[in-house]
Design goal:
InterPro entries: DUF3800. With 249 residues, the protein is of the alpha/beta class. It has one domain (23-149, 156-164, 193-248). 45% of the residues lie in helices and 18% in strands. It contains nine helices and six strands. It has helices spanning 39-57, 66-71, 82-98, 110-117, 124-141, 159-175, 182-187, 202-219, 226-229; strands at residues 6-15, 29-38, 102-109, 148-155, 191-195, 245-248. A six-stranded mixed beta sheet has the order 5-4-1-2-3-6, sandwiched between helices. Helix 1 runs antiparallel to helix 3 (82-98). The chain is globular and about 50 Å long.
Length: 249
């Protein structure tokens, strides 16, 4: 009798520039946002997002992109109609609130990082990814499902960047992290997949929608941030603390 595999996805998207050479003082942060979700719950996300796309565009080909939505650019120019915008945000927010997923995010405060480590130190993307993978393993350890496996899904950035990140991932698998042994990573049959933005992966779009409000929350925690409040309770937590929200250094 074959065993049932409980497959989880970890969708990852970014907010901010991972480079250290130039510093945007208005947004001096790099953040990776990860969404951990069981394949059954992911099916619901896909259905929900596709329904919203069909409601407003008549098809499911539109790609939700946080910046384009905020600026009402590209397909989202229809949101200049304020009544339509209100309806769209209501449906999207309800989906974000009601779906079953867990958020794990890692942010690098670039000013502090450059002061401590300089501009030519470790790749902040790789550093953030290691943290997210580590916390995702801790989270999955706590889930009662047997026979778990985890697929990390990341948007393609370019052949050179993807190759470098793939090599970093293979080193992680071989050596583990500071807190997770390679055996634990192998037990989850951990693998990484690079997907093109044009492939319209709804899980990556969800990660994108949550990344910017999370970065804004870290930069200005006291500022009103209703988008962040929609999913603030979905961060991986332990003992009442957001264990899935790390800022470094």
């Amino acid at each position: 009798m074959s065993q049932i595999i409980n497959k989880y996805f970890l969708f990852i998207d970014e907010s901010g520039d991972h480079g250290l050479v130039t510093l945007d003082l208005n947004f001096p942060i790099f953040l990776l946002c990860g969404i951990v979700i069981h394949q059954d719950h992911y099916q619901k996300v896909r259905e929900d997002f596709n329904e919203i796309k069909a409601n407003f565009w008549g098809n499911k080909e539109v790609i939700f992109h946080s910046r384009d939505i905020r600026k009402c650019e590209k397909e989202f120019q229809i949101l200049f109609d304020l009544e339509l915008k209100q309806q769209f945000y209501h449906q999207l927010n309800q989906s974000i609130i009601n779906q079953n997923y867990t958020v794990i995010a890692s942010a690098i405060g670039k000013e502090k990082y450059i002061k401590q480590y300089g501009k030519l130190s470790n790749d902040v993307y790789e550093l953030s990814l290691s943290f997210i993978i580590e916390r995702a393993v801790f989270y999955l350890d706590e889930q009662p499902d047997p026979n778990k496996e985890l697929e990390i899904v990341i948007e393609k950035r370019g052949p050179k960047e993807d190759k470098k990140l793939g090599e970093h991932f293979q080193r992680l698998i071989a050596r583990g992290t500071g807190y997770v042994s390679p055996e634990r990573l192998k037990y989850l049959q951990l693998k990484i997949t690079f997907r093109d933005k044009k492939e319209n992966i709804n899980g990556l779009q969800l990660a994108d929608l949550l990344a910017y409000p999370t970065a804004r929350y870290i930069l200005e925690p006291k500022r009103a941030n209703p988008a962040f409040e929609n999913f603030a309770d979905k961060f991986y937590s332990k003992n009442g603390k957001k264990y899935g929200l790390k800022t470094f250094p």
